UniProtKB/TrEMBL annotation:
Listed name of the protein: gibberellin 3beta-dioxygenase
Main EC class the enzyme belongs to: oxidoreductase
Residue ranges of domain Fe2OG dioxygenase in the record: 208-312
Keyword terms: Dioxygenase, Iron, Metal-binding, Oxidoreductase
UniProt lineage: Eukaryota, Viridiplantae, Streptophyta, Embryophyta, Tracheophyta
Pathway the protein acts in: Hormone biosynthesis; Plant hormone biosynthesis; gibberellin biosynthesis
């Protein structure tokens, strides 16, 4: 039995503040200094868009109809240029999206004392708390999170003594749908590079398809008195193959482009945002872009998001697909399992990718 996602941080304990040490988000009229970000707290905080032609001003990530006959190429192009795209006709019932949004709102609406009964432990992955990347920043983020790996039953029982079974059913159905969608998206993207199942046998569609695992990250960004100086979730890349994100009807997600700066991803009701993670960047030998993204907050509306963070089981070694490496070159990256990569990220954060990069001998 390979190590599970649940255990990846056993050897990487982390001490993060819990909400009972934090001010009550809802009662503040001014941002405390510990929540006020400047460019020195995050070098990209104020990264202005490079001067660009007026036509490029409202450029954003591609919107792709999965029923379109050219969807595979559109996805491949989006993965290479943006590392992110939005999808319609993804087959996930609207009712299920509404259910997971309701669950998320209901969870974060619980009294703090109740949420803390399911607080994430210092060595754990699952539970209530601030995002793990918080440890790399001096300032606090204007958000709270809840991570699910494996069965949420134990945590949900603590949150909702009566209704936990209904909520477990929603999570189970959501994860089931997301799993199928993620695998479909990965194969569409790979096929656009001419990569087929013989080239990536561990991910074969026929193998009992249990080669993948995932975490579900629920995020809540409360209304904020001074949103221009606050940060909902600091800039990061995901350590995944792919991440599928549902956002409620409140803008906040931004992706970074060297030539455009921070670009907002507008919420489109019923659609989902997909982004390339570090492992897909490695698998594609650097062709697909692991996109830097963050979440901003606003003054009038609370924001909710649900990220399905998807990657391979822990016994699977990810390395660049040989077909995508030129015969005269070495692959851009060494092989790595998801567990090893998450552990590297837990200590080195944004340096993790470069640490597994092969450096060419002169
Ligand atoms: C399977 C994963 C992926 C994790 C760690 C672990 C569980 C929670 C995920 C997130 C979710 C929020 C952003 C992020 C950067 C974070 O802090 O926690 C993610 C991180 C990663 O993609 O590296
Ligand atoms: O809330 C968002 O839009 C982004 C969330 C995110 O990046 C994450 O959970 O990894
Ligand atoms: Fe993310």
């Amino acid at each position: 039995m390979p190590a599970m996602l649940t255990d990846v941080f056993r050897g990487h304990p982390i001490h993060l503040p819990h909400s009972h040490h934090q001010p009550d988000f809802t009662s503040l009229r001014e941002l405390p200094d510990s929540y006020s970000w400047t460019p020195k707290d995050d070098i990209l905080f104020a990264a202005a868009a490079a001067p660009s032609p007026p036509t490029a001003v409202d450029e954003t990530i591609p919107f792709i109809d999965l029923d379109h006959p050219d969807a595979a190429n559109q996805i491949g192009h989006a993965c290479r240029t943006w590392g992110a795209f939005q999808i319609a006709n993804h087959g996930v019932p609207l009712r299920l999206l509404q259910d997971i949004e309701f669950l998320t709102g209901s969870l974060f609406g619980l009294p703090v004392q109740r949420k803390l009964k399911a607080a994430r432990s210092e060595t754990g992955v699952s539970g209530y708390g601030v995002a793990r990347i918080a440890s790399f920043f001096n300032k606090q983020m204007w958000s709270e999170g809840f991570t699910i790996t494996g069965s949420p039953l134990n945590d949900f029982r603590k949150l909702w003594p009566q209704l936990h079974l209904n909520y477990c059913d929603i999570v189970e159905e959501y994860e089931e749908r997301m799993k199928k969608l993620a695998s479909k998206l990965m194969w569409l993207a790979l096929s656009s590079l001419g990569v087929s199942e013989e080239d990536v046998q561990w991910a074969s569609l026929n193998s009992d398809s249990n080669w993948a695992q995932a975490a579900l990250q629920l995020n809540h960004y409360p209304v904020c008195p001074q949103p221009d100086r606050a940060m909902g979730l600091a800039a990061h890349t995901d350590s995944t193959l792919l991440t599928i994100l549902y956002q409620n009807n409140t803008a906040g997600l931004q992706v970074f482009r060297d030539d455009l700066g921070w670009v907002t991803v507008p919420p489109v009701p019923g659609s989902l945002v997909v982004n390339v993670g570090d492992l897909f960047h490695i698998l594609s030998n650097g062709l697909f872009k692991s996109v830097l993204h963050r979440a901003r907050v606003n003054q009038t509306r609370a924001r909710l998001s649900v990220a399905f963070l998807w990657g391979p089981q822990s016994d699977i070694k990810i390395s660049p697909v040989p077909k995508l490496v030129s015969p005269v070159d070495t692959p851009l990256y060494r092989s790595v399992t998801w567990t090893e990569y998450l552990q590297t990220k837990a200590t080195h954060f944004n340096k993790a990718l470069s640490m597994i990069r092969n450096h060419k001998e002169e």
